[in-house]
Design goal:
alpha+beta, 5-stranded mixed beta sheet, 24% helix, 38% strand
């Protein structure tokens, strides 16, 4: 008697769809945002270091670079300068050249598009649908850096680099419930 009832109760469970969730980070930026920003900073720092001509030992001046979010970009430029053969000092008075850094942008943009059956309890168009037929989510980080080099003693301009931009992008797509994939941008 109970064997047949178990089958009847378990039968509907076999047709239930599973779901998953993503836990967002507690810090101000998610891990994905941090990875995208650091990748964009690495890319533009390498370009910027190659564009600058530096004489002798250099001091990297970050006086006009506000905020803690830019520390990685500053370190990325220090590393790129060292890799390109520039000798750096932490003492401005020992420098022959001053490299002054400017950061025009260091942020992410996110765009999402979806088609599906919305949750009837919410009429908010920003709420993801209960049943997804198609969804695409694109996050892109942009790092815009510029710098110029001047003689530490005379103040004469040695070289300058126009603003350069590095980007990193991740695109996630989903069709039907549970079928999803991700693609990342190539080096730019």
């Amino acid at each position: 008697m109970f064997g047949g009832m178990r089958i009847v109760l378990l039968f509907p469970i076999a047709f239930l769809a599973g779901c998953s969730s993503v836990k967002n980070s507690i810090p101000a930026k998610t891990a994905t945002e941090q990875m995208l920003l650091s990748t964009a900073a690495d890319r533009v720092a390498g370009q910027l270091a190659q564009a600058l001509r530096v004489r002798g030992v250099a001091f990297l001046d970050t006086t006009y670079v506000p905020g803690d979010d830019n520390k990685y970009a500053i370190s990325a430029l220090r590393y790129a300068l060292l890799r390109s053969g520039v000798r750096l000092t932490n003492d401005r008075n020992q420098a022959a050249s001053i490299v002054e850094l400017r950061i025009g942008a260091m942020s992410t943009n996110e765009k999402e598009f979806f088609v599906g059956i919305p949750d009837p309890r919410s009429l908010d168009s920003a709420t993801p649908p209960t049943v997804v037929l198609y969804r695409t989510n694109t996050q892109e980080a942009v790092a815009k850096l510029a710098a110029f080099v001047y003689d530490a003693h005379s103040g004469d301009l040695i070289s300058a680099a126009d603003p350069l931009q590095g980007t990193a992008k991740v695109n996630r797509q989903e069709i039907a419930p549970g079928i999803s994939w991700e693609s990342k941008s190539s080096d730019r």
